[in-house]
Amino acid sequence: xxxxxxxxxxxxxxxxxxxxxxxxxxxxxxxxxxxxxxxxxxxxxxxxxxxxxxxxxxxxxxxxxxxxxxxxxxxxxxxxxxxxxxxxxxxxxxxxxxxxxxxxxxxxxxxxxxxxxxxxxxxxxxxxxxxxxxxxxxxxxxxxxxxxxxxxxxxxxxxxxxxxxxxxxxxxxxxxxxxxxxxxxxxxxxxxxxxxxxxxxxxxxxxxxxxxxxxxxxxxxxxxxxxxxxxxxxxxxxxxxxxxxxxxxxxxxxxxxxxxxxxxxxxxxxxxxxxxxxxxxxxxxxxxxxxxxxxxxxxxxxxxxxxxxxxxxxxxxxxxxxxxxxxxxxxxxxxxxxxxxxxxxxxxxxxxxxxxxxxxxxxxxxxxxxxxxxxxxxxxxxxxxxxxxxxxxxxxx
Length: 397
Fold this sequence. Notes:
Layout: H1 6-11, H2 14-26, E1 44-46, E2 52-54, E3 58-59, E4 65-66, E5 77-78, E6 86-94, E7 97-105, H3 115-118, E8 119-126, E9 134-140, E10 145-151, E11 158-163, E12 191-196, E13 207-209, E14 222-228, E15 234-242, E16 246-254, E17 262-263, E18 278-285, E19 288-294, E20 304-306, E21 314-315, E22 327-329, E23 335-337, E24 340-348, E25 355-363, E26 383-389
Antiparallel strand pairs: 1-2, 3-4, 5-26, 6-7, 7-8, 8-9, 10-11, 11-12, 12-13, 14-15, 15-16, 16-17, 18-19, 19-20, 20-21, 22-23, 24-25, 25-26
């Protein structure tokens, strides 16, 4: 900090004083040192000199930024070459294959304005966690959205958490044309889960359970993100809409992946809910629990963390940066700026159980570089499901 005593003040020129005073306002505040591992976002350790040493899946002064590797220009997730728009999902491993489950808009319809009507869940197969995925087929017909795949550690069942109920809606949207405002639809719930004894089971073998929570009301639960534990219990993060405070995260729990789920915190008011925005993604590392959303804009978020997953959720330091943003760099030198980047999902690496891949739904700009306004539903803004590998740590925790 700049300090001037009376003697010094009389010896310097007025211009020097003005310049020094100006520095007080333009010089960035010093980095806040860490004192505990918690202040390193539970993603690293606090060294003796007060700096964070990150575990590898993050970087930054507070271990708050996902250590995303450049997107692979040959394996970057799921972009349907027949002009179908997808919006989030992830791949999970079984034997020597990886199975992608993603939300895709039927009829080549755009995401905006149509997702709550024609979204369905498709499955693809690949020999690599990032694709390219083949043999695309529908496993949950519309309406089904917010697809998140898992395998139950208790009984080995393959699960797809999602929102929606079958509506038999069929539409054909024309590619690269402005569509009329769609007929509308429910914006949330109910939360469901589809289960099968193998990930490549045909659609008719997936058994559907639910609603697991409340249904379609304004305040209903949506955006399910479960953490499944070895003893069969489940911690579920959902988004709820509040009249004051907008969308916030509420935690629920169940003794089984089949539900029903009960609220851990009261939901009639914002009390007890977390101001993390929507699209929660819960995941756990050896240091604790973490959550990604999108809460600093349509394409970015801050990292939240907790030691027990329930009672002590915290946001990274006010000096911290976003965990991810809308800039996507590829390994061939291409850099794109997406209009939206949402529906985050971390997939843990089978080698060490640490974050290995980051999936998200992304929306590309129009050819002229513009992004859609909230009150328009252009068919020409393509969306797809992007994956990037996450850097690995050389040490094992």
